[in-house]
Amino acid sequence: MAFAERWHLETLFFHLRHGEITITLDDVACLLHLPIKGILLSHSRLTKEEAMEMLIEELGDDPTVALQEVKRTHEAHARYHTLQQIYDVELLAAHQAVGEEVEADIHREWVFRCYLLYSIGTKLFVDTSLTYTDVVYLTYLSDIARVHEYNWGAATLAYTYHRLGEGCMWKAGNVAASCILLVGRLHPVLDPYKRCLDCMASEDVHYDYYADHCETVPFHKIVLYSEWLASGSIIIVHYLPERVMRQFGYQQTVPHHPSDFAPIAMTRRQLVEVFTDREHHMAAIVDGLFPEGSAGLRLLEDIIRVAEEAYLYRRSRAKTGGALDGRG
Fold first, then answer.
1. Residue 159, φ and ψ in degrees, nearest 5
2. Distance set, CA 103 to CA 15, 54, 92, 111 (Å)
3. What CA–CA distances, in Å, run from 11 to 5, 8, 154, 261, 323?
4. CB-facing half-sphere around the CA of 140: CA atoms within 13 A
5. Using CA atoms, how far apart are residues 74 and 48, in angstroms rounded to an integer?
6. Roughly how many angstroms between the first and final C-alpha of the chain, as a whole number?
7. Quick one: which of 24, 18, 14, 30 has its CA closest to 175?
8. d(C-alpha 253, C-alpha 242), whole Å
9. DSSP per-residue string spanning 190-242
10. pLDDT, tens only, 128-174
């Protein structure tokens, strides 16, 4: 919740004392090792009947159990406990199908889909209930050989942005998002988190976090794509790497208003067209705006230092009950 309180709905960024940071496609690729290229996820909500049919056909679930599952969750969902039970039953059936290769392969596919759906629900598209996941993701697991062709990274990032937007509301009790992505962007911090975030300086933040990780996960230019991302046909959010170029090791310029980069909301079809033509929708890279040791860079550092000192002074005066104008 300490992070969610600093989430800005207009920019989809964390606003901290030292500036803006956010979760990017680079974070998703390096921390979760998900593909950030490929076919965008385009699902919509399933009915209970459609969810039952998918549980039976894609996971080998018993029709009676599938019916009870959608009734208990009141939606097209499957509980993690149920997925664990299906996994155990089908794994045992696959081992027992000795000499029956066709039957064994069917049970193995059900086991694999069950494992993937469980992982998707607990690691990527985390629900606030923390007890079940959406059955709709079985749509992309029907053909196991094509699972890697989908853009799971972009969908995960869009979903995380959406959930952080819900979590920053004053009525929200928790945040449903990938914790791996949240902790990966900042230094490990000590309790209490809110105070630590308020006192965090620029040197406490990993901007170019994955400089030594390029051999494992190469830097993809696609992380600089700037427009809109989607997770299915319902969740559509803007993605603005121009505002956090420091996180990619580039010079940060003064950011413009979000509407200058993503001026209008798009339809699903338009978004797919823009993402496909992403080479023409990239954040501009500016090098040498303030060369190392230049007067312009020193002036900028002085301005940031004075702003930080003023911020800390105002907070200390507010906590002690003193007036902010120096007359208390």
1. -65, -40
2. 54, 19, 12, 13
3. 14, 6, 17, 11, 32
4. 22
5. 8
6. 33
7. 14
8. 8
9. PSSHHHHHHH--GGGB-SSTTGGGTTTSPPPGGGGB-EEEEETTTEEEEE-GG
10. 788 899 999 999 999 999 999 999 999 999 999 988 887 777 666 66
**CB 22 within 8 Å of CB 223:** no
Q: Which two tokens stand for residue 72?
A: 């208990």
Residue-wise pLDDT for 196-211, tens only, equals: 767 777 677 767 777 7
114 Cβ partners below 8 Å, 6+ apart?
59, 83, 86, 87, 90
Alpha carbons within 13 angstroms on the beta-carbon side of residue 142 total: 9
| Residue matched to tokens 């699972």 | 147
Taking 90 as the threshold, does the pLDDT of residue 50 lie above it?
yes
Pairing of strands 132-134, 13-16: unpaired
Structure tokens given for 317 = 């005066």
Listing DSSP states for 94-119 in one string gives HHH-TT-HHHHHHHHHHHHHHHHHHH
Element (H, E) at 66: helix 63-73
pTM: 0.79
